[in-house]
Design brief:
This protein has 358 residues and is an alpha+beta fold. The chain has two domains: 119 residues, Nucleotidyltransferase, domain 5; 200 residues, Carbamoyltransferase, C-terminal domain (DHBP synthase, Alpha-Beta Complex), CATH 3.90.870.20. 35% of the residues lie in helices and 16% in strands. The chain contains 13 helices and 13 strands. The strands form three sheets. It has a nine-stranded mixed beta sheet, with helices on both faces. A two-stranded antiparallel sheet has the order 1-2. Helix 1 crosses helix 4 and helix 9 packs across helix 12. The longest helix has 26 residues.
Length: 358
Amino acid sequence: MIGLAPYGKLNQELYELLSATISVQGFDCQHSSKNLFASIADLENFKRLDQDPIEKAADLAFTGQYFFAELMTKLLQHLQQQTGSKNLTLGGGCALNSAFNGQIQDRTDFPQVFIPSAPADDGTALGAAWLALHHDQPDLALANSVVKSPYLGSIIPDKAVKNLIRYNRSLNIQHLPDSICATTAKLLSKGQLVGWIQGRAEFGPRALGNRSILADPRFAATKDNINQKVKFRESFRPFVPSVLHQHADNFFECYHESPYMDKTLRIRAHMQDRIAAVCHVDGTGRLQTVKQEWNPRFYQLINCFYQQTQIPMLLNTSFNVMGKPLVHSLEDALAVFLSTGLDALVVNDYLICKPYDE
């Protein structure tokens, strides 16, 4: 819905139907489902047939997003007025709506907004663990200003790659411990699509530079290239600009940190053509802020790309194909690499290329 919404416009009939179904008064949300289903004929007006392109639902997506933003604004503004707080931490599935997250500071009186890396159901386990720790050790200081690492998942050990080197008969594999970032940045600057695996996998729904597919963000054609040859998904879906923090304000209006790809911000008008592959149709981008202290290897890679191109960001998307989970083993990564249009695969300090790249 979030990706398709900018292609549509407000459908007044649907908006009125939604307004009659859900309302917000203070913290009370009233849901009158009978209003939504009162007239099946009315709902039929919004039906998209199987043979219709997904773009036909753009007005529904826009209207749904518009209505969602209205309700969330009412709830959050009431919360701010009741608490007087200037700091907001937002969790739950609604916190995955990055388009609205990027508007919270403008639409409410919360100047500081924090969204965790796993705000939906998958983060509940981590929250429960923190709550239990606080219960067992109430004097332990849990809160500080340090961004918590989302890199809590599995690793792919060098041993797995060494076994591949020993037994493979076709792939070109190089061990580049001193130059893997510079070499990869050069491939990216030449337009190659690269699968990038480093350290522990991300906890949460976003690929934050450890299980990522990366590309040059400068050219609009790159977006379609990845959707068609790697992700196998709809063309309207946008990609993330992973940007070095110290340069982000040059590219984004009203920039504020987005460490977990949690906010969508407007790209400055004079920069939109320079990073066309990550600029959505409405001139926005769901960015990831990258700092050296958060992810040194990913920072180094983007900085190498910046030194070569003067663009301090990369196009970033999750290392998977549509409908499949993130890769978590070398076998997973190789399956995606060999069955899609990826040009290169980087695992730790190893560069893996297909036979025709020899």
